[in-house]
């Protein structure tokens, strides 16, 4: 029975959502590469390419004919395969074809690929054994589950070895030991064209800090990834690291490929928690706002336009109905010190929690503001208050007569 | 963690196919262990184990799992390479064209589209291959081959490096010829190639402009134009 439980555990497929996201992201990155190089495909990969002297795989379909038309046919088959891969059509056969077409294309010109292309080719091979449908509810056999987990583990170990290997080589280098390596990298013409590197490399503190942080991150990655307490921290560090590379060195495709791999390092439970955080049952919820405040009015106007499903109702705090709604829950609407949301279940949210709720209702991409929920509510509310106070200064708050009677003027609510 | 229904189904499946499941699990574990052990040797810096197993490791790794994670390590690239070219068309000879500058300018104009990023990488790698030959990340081996170039390993590397330079030379001719075609020389018959290797100011002089650094030039004198494009 112990053996059966162990096998159950080993065969219970992990990171299935992540594997699906990896498939989509990696496939889109490949489509991006096909697209941006489309007009130069003959110079880069065609039979009369610039670097044609380098040996290529004999069994690659690209080397079966020297005709430009034939090359174009194979190249477009590669694009079609990448599209099918992104869409999740064809299952394992498409994954297999995707790996082969990527390998054959990269093999035609080994001088243009970077680390991202390299790792993509290797990971695609592992992905053949994984369930990359992204559907967690889909049942798989025990053997398929075992293979899937082995493939996910292989991706994790491969990425860990990548970081560890490059980190170990860096430690051996004098420039890295002296903390100045980043200066040289960011100043090389082929990585400094964005112009952003110059903002970093002129500051010695930034150069030394980022040089050492790079080595530390790469060496720490394998140890931190497989530790439940440090996994999330190292993943956040990795995301920042690759976004930094994309922006400062202009290596967009490389960073895209690398970050695609991170999807499998997030568990299915974590994805489901994020999903529940981003989605919200907004039906019959009421947003109460200060109608006398110009900024609040514009914010509600924006929400009304963005809420395509029209699930929210809106009431000015000055309306009698709003006053009753809040009074029945022990809140004095007259204080006008916050935006409120009264959920269908009766729960009342105020200040930053109310704003986050409203943004979550708007769906993608506005729901991403729900990430602010990770901060303590008191901190969020303090920021809300600071913003509201600055709003007074910006004269965004236009005081208009109240609905009831129209003669009384009240201060703006902090919406 | 997994839910009870799934666990029950899986437990039944395990009990029904116990021997198959054990075989698959053991095979998967053994395969992963062997695979990543070989990769660990392959990716590690130079050490006695790597030297002893080099041939066997390369046989397994090449071509499916070849990797190179030391573009910036141990020594990061620290010079800027620029490709310059002159075009000759019958009796007319052009001024120097700064081909790399043109490509990077295109990249800067469309930073997120990156339609010239691969071309830029190709230029850089061909130039680096021509100027520096094959990359040798292990300092120990690099120094060894300078001191004792007759060792078999060093001779093989030297031959491979010469081959890389020869290939790069043809690639450079095509890059310059294509630049000539793009710059109004449709009948270019010969090209003059120059690689400028700029050692920009070192860290202690980081506020100085690039021009304050030292430049070295590698010239490939006039040679017939070479292109894959239809003229």
Overview of the molecule:
The complex is a heterodimer of chains A (415) and B (231). With 415 residues, chain A is mainly alpha-helical. Chain A has helices spanning 2-11, 16-36, 41-44, 68-87, 91-108, 115-127, 142-172, 174-177, 181-187, 189-192, 197-201, 204-225, 231-249, 252-261, 268-278, 294-306, 320-327, 351-361, 377-393; strands spanning 286-289, 313-316, 340-342, 348-350. Chain A has a four-stranded mixed β-sheet, sandwiched between helices. In chain A, strand 1 (286-289), helix 16 (294-306) and strand 2 form a beta-alpha-beta unit. Chain A is globular. The termini of chain A are far apart. Chain B has 231 residues and is of the alpha+beta class. Helix content of chain B is 52%, strand content 15%. Chain B is built from seven helices and five strands; from the N terminus they run αααβββααααββ. Chain B has helices at residues 4-16, 18-43, 48-61, 99-109, 117-132, 139-147, 152-182; strands at residues 80-89, 92-93, 97-98, 190-199, 214-224. In chain B, helix 4 (99-109) packs antiparallel against helix 5 (117-132). Chain B is elongated, with a radius of gyration of 26 Å. Chain B starts with a helix and ends in a 7-residue tail after the last strand. At the A-B interface, helix 1, helix 3, helix 6, helix 7 and helix 8 of A face helix 1, helix 2, strand 1, helix 4 and helix 5 of B.
């Amino acid at each position: 029975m112990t053996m059966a439980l162990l096998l159950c555990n080993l065969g219970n497929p992990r990171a299935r959502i992540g594997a699906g996201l990896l498939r989509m992201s990696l496939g889109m990155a490949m489509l991006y590469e096909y697209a941006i190089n489309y007009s130069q495909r003959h110079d880069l990969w065609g039979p009369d390419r610039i670097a044609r002297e380098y040996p290529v795989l004999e069994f690659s379909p690209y080397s079966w004919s020297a005709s430009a038309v034939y090359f174009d046919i194979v190249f477009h088959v590669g694009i079609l395969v990448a599209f099918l891969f992104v869409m999740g059509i064809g299952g394992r056969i498409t994954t297999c074809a995707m790996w082969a077409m990527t390998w054959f294309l990269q093999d035609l010109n080994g001088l243009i690929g970077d680390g991202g292309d390299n790792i993509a080719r290797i990971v695609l091979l592992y992905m053949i054994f994984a369930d990359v449908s992204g559907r967690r509810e889909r049942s798989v056999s025990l053997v398929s589950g075992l293979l899937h987990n082995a493939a996910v583990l292989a991706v994790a170990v491969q990425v860990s070895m990548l970081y560890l290997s490059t980190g170990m080589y860096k430690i051996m280098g004098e420039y890295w030991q002296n903390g100045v390596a980043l200066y040289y990298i960011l100043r090389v013409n082929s990585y400094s064209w964005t112009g952003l590197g110059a903002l970093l490399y002129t500051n010695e503190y930034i150069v030394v800090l980022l040089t050492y942080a790079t080595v530390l991150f790469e060496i720490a990655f394998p140890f931190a990834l497989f530790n439940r307490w440090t996994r999330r921290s190292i993943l956040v560090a990795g995301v920042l690291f690759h976004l930094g590379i994309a922006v400062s060195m202009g290596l967009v495709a490389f960073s895209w490929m690398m970050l695609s791999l991170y999807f499998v390092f997030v568990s299915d439970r974590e994805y489901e928690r994020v999903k529940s955080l981003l989605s919200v049952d907004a039906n019959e919820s009421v947003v109460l706002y200060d109608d006398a405040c110009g900024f609040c009015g514009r914010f509600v106007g924006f929400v009304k336009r963005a809420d395509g499903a029209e699930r929210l109702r809106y009431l000015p705090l000055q309306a009698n109905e709003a006053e009753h709604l809040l009074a029945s829950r022990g809140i004095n609407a007259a204080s006008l010190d916050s935006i409120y949301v009264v959920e269908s279940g009766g729960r009342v949210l105020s200040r930053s929690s109310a704003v986050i709720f409203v943004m979550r209702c708007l769906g993608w991409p506005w729901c991403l503001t729900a990430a602010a929920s990770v901060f303590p509510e008191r901190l969020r509310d303090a920021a809300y208050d600071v913003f509201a106070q600055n709003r007074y200064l910006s004269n965004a708050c236009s005081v208009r007569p109240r609905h009831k009677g129209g003669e009384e003027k009240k201060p703006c609510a902090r919406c | 963690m997994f839910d009870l229904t799934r666990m029950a189904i899986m437990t039944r499946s395990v009990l029904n196919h116990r021997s198959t499941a054990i075989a698959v699990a053991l095979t998967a574990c053994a395969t992963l262990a062997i695979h990543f052990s070989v990769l660990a040797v392959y990716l590690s810096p130079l050490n006695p184990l790597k030297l002893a197993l080099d041939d066997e490791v390369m046989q397994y790794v090449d071509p499916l799992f070849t990797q190179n994670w030391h573009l910036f390590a141990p020594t990061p690239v620290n010079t800027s390479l620029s490709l310059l070219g002159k075009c000759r068309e019958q009796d007319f000879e052009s001024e120097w064209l700064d081909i790399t500058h043109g490509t990077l300018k295109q990249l800067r104009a469309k930073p997120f589209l990156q339609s010239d990023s691969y071309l830029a990488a190709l230029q850089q790698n061909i130039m680096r291959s021509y100027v520096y030959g094959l990359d040798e990340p292990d300092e120990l081996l690099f120094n060894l081959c300078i001191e004792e170039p007759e060792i078999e390993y060093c001779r093989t590397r030297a031959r491979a490096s010469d081959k890389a330079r020869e290939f790069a030379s043809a690639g450079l001719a095509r890059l310059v010829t294509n630049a000539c075609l793009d710059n109004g020389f449709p009948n270019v018959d010969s090209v003059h190639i120059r690689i400028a290797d700029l050692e920009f100011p070192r860290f202690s002089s980081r506020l100085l402009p690039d021009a304050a650094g030292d430049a070295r030039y590698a010239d490939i004198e006039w040679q017939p134009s070479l292109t894959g494009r239809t003229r």
